[in-house]
Amino acid sequence: MKRRIRGIPAELWVDACTAIVVVTFYSVAWPTLHVTHVVTPPVQPFLAALAAFPILLVRVNPALGWAVSAGSALLIAAAVPHQPGSDLPFQVVQLICLIVLLFAVGLRAPLPLVGVAWLATSLLVGATMPGPGAELGWPLGFGALVLFALLIRWLVLSRRQLSAFEEENELERARRAVLEEKARIARDLHDVVAHHMSLVVVQAQTAPYRVDGVSEGARAEFESIGATAREALNEIRGMLGVLRSDGQLPEHAPQPSAADLPALLDATRRAGVPLTWTVRGELSGVPETVGLALYRIVQESLSNASRHAAGADVQVDVVCGTELAVWIGNGPGTPGPTGNGGHGVAGMHARAVAVGGELVAGARPGGGYDVRARLPLAAGVTVAPQPATLGKR
């Protein structure tokens, strides 16, 4: 029942409350109209409707509702005679409706129309209401009402603009984070590919001196291979220069590989993370690109677990056979700071796809988080399973 009530739109609640107010005003205006004005009984319900019904437009079209209310007030004040001893030009119900609609106009209508509504209402009420100072008091009161409505209007508008600006900033941060992660992946791949292509260049240039009996045709072929490899290497470095246009310096440190994974896990455990891991298979034979992807995926997963689930138990399971299968899971812990929008997961997925693999990440039903990835090894590379190495907590 509570869920159904919460699911009702706010506009429907406003319309329901407005309908209740209109029914109440109408039930008061109809039987009391003869107290202030000389009217026949058949005319009473129509004049009471003119007094109460315009407020129905307070949400849909407040300017039209105000115009109908002000016009009917002027009509009643000018054409319907008053009862002896009553100086009210129209009913109090109609004055209340007129004030409510003027406030709604100040909230939603264009500023020129707000000024017209304030001026017309001030002239109407100030000229028809009895009492000393009515010509000045009513305009001042209506002016304060309109000013208050405009202040609320500008406050709401500024909050909306601030919310839209924050949303745009969040989208920009998300886009920038994804681009930065892609650039980092490109740099990592460059370092690995450039290393192997440099070896190709060296082997092609030294082959005539290392191999006996190389003919002139073979020597020319080796030179062509070396030139092509150097050209490709230069193009890769040029592309990387575009990615480093933000002023970043090249990274000269060697990139981590799959063989460095146990050291990463051990360092994470020494840092205080309650970590348990299992590695099945020999990681030293994993290709560099796949090993780098494995290392970065585990590194990012451990970082996310320690950041967003502090104190939670973390398990890592790596199986190296005909392919690499990795699972990183953590239980529920103390929630950490939020706001990165899950871009680390996007980066891990991009790394897995870059080497032809796949990655799935998601929250556990009972709390916690799981990351599972499958990374193919190079064609023909099969590492025989070895006894599992277990990292103790």
TrEMBL record:
The chain crosses the membrane at residues 12-33, 64-82, 136-156. Residues 181-246 form the Signal transduction histidine kinase subgroup 3 dimerisation and phosphoacceptor domain. GO terms for molecular function: kinase activity. Pfam families: HisKA_3 (PF07730). The keyword Membrane applies. The keyword Glycosyltransferase does not apply. This is histidine kinase. SUPFAM superfamilies: ATPase domain of HSP90 chaperone/DNA topoisomerase II/histidine kinase (SSF55874). It is an enzyme of class 2 (transferase). Keywords: ATP-binding, Kinase, Membrane, Nucleotide-binding, Phosphoprotein, Transferase, Transmembrane, Transmembrane helix, Two-component regulatory system. It catalyses: ATP + protein L-histidine = ADP + protein N-phospho-L-histidine.
